Structures are given as C-alpha cells and as structure tokens.
What we know:
By secondary structure, the protein is mainly alpha-helical. It contains four helices and two strands. The protein has a two-stranded parallel ribbon with strand order 1-2. It is globular and about 40 Å long.
Amino acid sequence: PVATISAVAKRGTHFAVCDMATNMLTGVVANATKGVQEAIYQEFVRNLIPNSHLVAAGVVGVNRAQEYGYTLLTAI
C-alpha cells in the first residue's frame, strides 16, 4: 500500500504543525511577495493537511506526545 498523507490520515494519524515555523514561513512569503503576513498565515492555516493541528512549537508538541507514550520516527 502507498503511504500518502491522505491514506495515513484516514487511518487516524494526527499531525502536529509548528506554529512558530508557520509564522516564520508566512513572513518570508509576505516579504517575497509584498503580501500581508496575517492574510498569508490565515491561508496557510485554512489549507493544513488533513488531521493536522497547530502546536505552539514543534519540539513542545513532540515532547508532549512522548509524555503520552507516542514515539517520533524520522526517516530520510
């Protein structure tokens, strides 16, 4: 089976999205396009991947999940 974001989301996987990184990235996009950062941020938030949730900081989200018995696996 193919492990796509949609496929694993349908199986109940939840994704944490770092809000600090999201804000930083929207600032970069706003500067590059002369856009309004808050409007770009709202568009990013509206278009998050399925089953994703913003967390204040990615590292905090990972640490909290580990407190509840979840593990983090990264494969490159």
